[in-house]
Amino acid sequence: MDWAVDLYAQFPALLFEHAVQPVFYRLGLMAWADDAFDWLDFFVFGCLQVIVVYLVCRPLEAWRPVEPAQPGRLIRTDVIYTLLVRLGLLPMLGFIVFVTAQTRIEGWIADSGWVPPTIENLFPALREMPLLALAIYIVVLDFGEYWRHRFQHRFQWWWALHSIHHAQTAMTFWTDDRNHVLDDIIAAAWVSGIAVLIGVPPGQFPIILMVLRLAESLSHANARVDFGAVGERLVVSPRFHRLHHGVLSVGQQGRNYAVLLPVWDWVFRTADFNRASYPRTGDPTAPVAYVGGGWLRQQLVGLAEVWRALRGRGRA
Fold it and tell me: What is the pTM of this model?
């Protein structure tokens, strides 16, 4: 695993040395060089995610689409979401905010003398079995994502944000990143906080994110694909998650919340394994802007919707 991490780390280092650093030197911006290198690492990782997701999901959508003809205008908005989230300014902003917060949290923990009960502290043998430890980290973080997803549907103010994601009537693998910025910030804090508490090594965290992101993008694909009676209970499929996005599964009526492992829905009785169903997607109660508006319009209306929810005023 170390050689893979080292190989990945070499590319942004070379890109920074030969492309970014000379530009910063000429512009007199070398004081920002370290921040630029950190952002470039996010950028390269985002590019890798987009490439892998596209190569896996696009052929499936072309092979067996649920909806052969979809409005390109709606899909283009989702593409903008993906590029902003995975390649644009949002990763840089997230890095600055959360690294600062993580540094302070770690300082508070060190000052208190409390040592978080990480998985490898509880089970020292895992230090010699990195692949098994990686699998356990993925399971734990996936469990956390299941509950975050349920809370998004449970609390009205959070649903006001998450509804942007569900309002898409032309769902594709691009829809995965269709979220309000505030929702993305909460999600980043959630998964990062859990990762710190269970002791995920920094070198393994990008791999875990890649696995979860690929699973989420695949589950949103416009593809008539299921994994069979047994497979559907092991890994979330496009069919399984499409039931979650169906027009009859919005708000607190949600089902199939799992990101990677359907076992959480099975255990907590929120699973629907109806393999014959590929429902129409969307949120009939969502504001019009959530469906056909552009990125900025949806973000502004989302803030207004959250404010209405916090004041106890539901949708008309």
Answer: 0.84
